[in-house]
Each structure stands twice: as C-alpha cells, then as structure tokens.
Amino acid sequence: MKKLLFLLLFISCSAFSQTIRVHIDGVLHTTDLDGRLLLLMSKNNKAEPRFQINDAAGSQLVFGMDVTGWKPNTTQLIDIQAIGYPLERLKDVPEGDYYVQVLLHKYETFHLKTGQTVKLPMDRGEGQHWNEAPGNIYSAPIKIHFNPAKAGEIQLSITQTIPPIKQPEDTRYIKHIRIQSKLLTEFWGRPMYIGANILLPGGFDEHPNVRYPLAIFHGHFPADLEGFRTTPPDANLKPDTSERFHITGYNKIVQQEAYDFYKQWTGPKFPRVIAIEIQHANPYYDDSYAVNSANLGPYGDAITYELIPAVEKQFRGIGKGWARFMYGGSTGGWEVLAAQVFYPDQYNGCYAACPDPVDFHHYTTIDIYNDKNAYYPESDFKKTPRPGERNYLGHVLTTVKEMNQRELALGSRTRSGEQFDIWEAVFSPMDADGYPKRIFDKYTGAIDTSVARYWRDNFDLTYIIKRDWPKIGNQLKGKIHIYVGDMDTYYLNNAVYSAEDMLKKLDNPNCNCVIDYGDRAEHCWNGDHTQPNYISRLRYHQMFIKRWAEEVKTRAPKGADQQSWRY
C-alpha cells in the first residue's frame, strides 16, 4: 500500500511539475549508451555551466541521473525529483532565468577478473574530469525560464562532442613513456595502460655510460611534465589573478620559477637524476593512489614492478631500490608514504607533504572508528555539520555533507571521480555488485563499522606502520619525512599529529623520521620555512632531489655508485 501511494505521488508530482526532456542528435547516437546524465544550471554566463560546479560558495547547480542502454531515437526525462547539488532536488530550484545545458558522462562496461561486471567512465587522457572528457556529449548552453511548479517540459538537445586531447611531444629534456600493464589488463578485462612524464638530467646525452637514480614525483594526473621551461617568461603574458593566493600576475611567477628550475637542473652542482611524474588515471579517478586495491586492481605492483623498471631500462636508470626515492603533496603525499611502507626495499626515502589522511581516526574531520555518522557529531538535540574545508584563518568554506552531496549528484556507486569517492574506491572492499562498499551512506552519513575495520587493516598507514614495525622497521628507518601546515585546508594536519605520536614511540629500531609543521600554512605546505606557500609549492623537484642526494650518502649500500651521476 505504501509503495502504491508513493508511486501515485511520484506520478502526480511529475505530471504537474516542470521537467527536462533530453534528445541526442542522431549523428551522436548510433548505439546504446550508458552513463551519468547531468543537468547543469547557472544564474550567470561567465562560463558554461559545466565549468561552474565546485565546492566553493559560488558553485552553480548540477542534477544527475543514471542512464543504462539509452537507445537511439529515444529521449530521457529528467524529472523534478532528480538529485542535485548545492540544492538537493530539481524541485528545490527557485523560479527564475537560468543558463542550462546537459552532458552525458559516458560509461564503459568492464568484465572484472573477480567475475563482476561494472559500468564506469574510462579515463580518455584528460585525467578523469567529466566536463572535459573526450567523447562525452553535451548541449550548447541556452537561457530558459524555469518554474518547478509549472506543468510542462523543457526540450534540450545534445549536439556536441568533446574532442580528443592532443598528446604532448618529446623534447630534448622531456620524454614520455606509456606501457600496457599485464597486471591491470588481467584485472580489468581489457587493455589498461600506465605511463610517465620523464625529465632527463642535464648532460644525459654527453654522458652515455652514466646510470642515474630515479626521483619519483607522485600526485594528480599530469598531462605533461610541469614546472620546467627552457625559455624566460612570456613577455606579453597577460597577468592573471590567483584567487587562492590573492596574487595578481601569479602566472608569470609560475613561468619564472619553471625557467629558474631549468637553469638549476642543467647548471653546475645539481644532482643528476631522472625525474618522473607517473600517469595512472583509471575508471575511478585521476590516479590510483599507487597501491593494490580490491576495486582498482594491483596499481601498486604495476607501478613498482612494471612501469618503473621500464623507465629505468629505457633511460639508463640504476635500477636498484637504494637509488629510487619519492616525493609529492596531498594525494601524492599519501602515495609516497604508502608506497614506502608497502614496498620498503624498493624505495629509499619518501617526502610526504600535506598527505591525505594517514590515520583514519582523523579522516579529515571524521573518526571512522568511533563516530557513528560522517556528517554530524552524535548529539541528543544538536545537528552541527562537520566542516570539510577551511581557509588559513579557520573560516569554514564547506562541509563534509556538502562535498559528498556534490559527488552524489555527479555519480552513483562511487563514480563521481571526486575525492571522497576515490578514497572509498581505493580503501574499501568490493561489494557484491562489483562496486566499492560504502564506508558511509552517501545520503545519511551513517558509517559502516565493518568497512572501517577493513580500511584500518589495509590502508590506515599509522596503524599499519605500528603493527608491522617489527618486520619492516629496519627497512624504513630514516626514510620517512612528513610535512604539513597546521591550518591545512582539509584538516589533514590532525592525522599527522597522531602519526607523529606513534612514530616517536617506535623502537628496535628508532624511526629517525622527520615531521615538520608550517605555522598557519594551508594546503599544501611542503616543509620550506623560508618561502611562502605559493612559492615553495612550485619547487618540489629542486627541494627534495637536493635533500635526498645528501641523505643517500648515509643510506646507500656499500659499494653503490654515488659519484658518476654527480658530475
């Protein structure tokens, strides 16, 4: 009876409310399509609505629904109950004039090694961005008057396709490598590739017999190697304004830093190493977090045992664990610490700046072990939302619930391609349907304690280091460096505090770890007390390559070549 009443209510709401009907041009719709159909609405035309969806206060509107087997010559109806962000339902949109467009984020079908079949958006060279993914189809923005209480339909037609992305070309110093991973291909049931952008050292061609250490920079998807240019800043560069750093002309600062790095890299006394940035975008995110995962597959093994040896073989790397080290910030900060812990003999040092949560007692502002709800602290009467993002003064910019509401609008079943969903995809066990098992209900915030225990045992780095120290301590001592601002934008410093407390207590052997904090520094402070964050964030290569080149003198095995690459 309840189901019948709900159905009648749903039909009634749909029949007497404004809805959106979407048609695809026949040229773009010749086969059945799967994906996430997104309705984008904006009060302004500063940019296309698809480029105005974010966690900031100025975000415009998105509403999403799954489509499966969308057949040619048929339409889709986006009804008034469609879930959205920042407003929860399409019915909540105030009457008014809006610029609107629709976009279909296409999904492919994967037949996993585990036996499950899933539909996911494969990365197409853009680093998993639904609004830029080549092959996605969309409509041109039009201005409409929307009234959710008015009966009738608004017709929108998808007529455009996002074009392919041109691949970067090799230069004298910058090279590119892409390999098919046997391990990942077996897991995903289709050819899967990983790659790297490579920066060759000065004098590489002039010293054909030298073999080099490998400096591995982890982070979000790098379309090409950034922060390196062989020419001075563009003379006619129009100054931009950095909203994050409140600086006009930041684009010129970025170009100047890149040119200065080139001069250091090729100048005297700079350690000669091969620097690489790894490309491991996948169906869930712009990178894999560089570990083996139930849902993403064996990316840790693929990077460590397939990609890195391929780079070293082609570009004369030393090819030994003592001659590899890692550095990175944010996602990359977590990755380098995780890779060092899970592959202690394969890497000889990690420099982790502003790492994603390294202790899940502080999963940003959530304690997944003791809290019952991710969105609100337990209380008899109050319902105070957990903060999700702040500025360096502590002013809250958005909440955990709002961040997850955006993800829920962009994709169901952990398919948004955003931050909380990728953590869930990497850290969670696989659910019965082949998608990641939820750590918490995306709508209510209720935490699943069984999933929390799985996260702890497999990916809580603080817990794992303490648990496994008797086995891996001698391989890790002196290799761990963590840096974070004490006003990190995403509260990541809280997990580092817990990690530091644990690391200081380790013995047999002592950890000899480095933990450092930046006073009032937001995301992503990396340990440089001499420069503002907007400068130091541009100097990862020159900071950590020099630092490691000194430290390795005490950690290299007896007889290791530490001289030929220091020309």
UniProtKB/TrEMBL annotation:
Gene3D superfamilies: alpha/beta hydrolase (3.40.50.1820). It comes from the Bacteria. Keywords: Signal. Transmembrane segments: none annotated. Residues 1-17 form the signal peptide. InterPro entries: AB_hydrolase_fold, Mycobacterial_A85_antigen. PANTHER family: ENTEROCHELIN ESTERASE-RELATED (PTHR48098), IRON(III) ENTEROBACTIN ESTERASE (PTHR48098:SF3). This is Esterase.
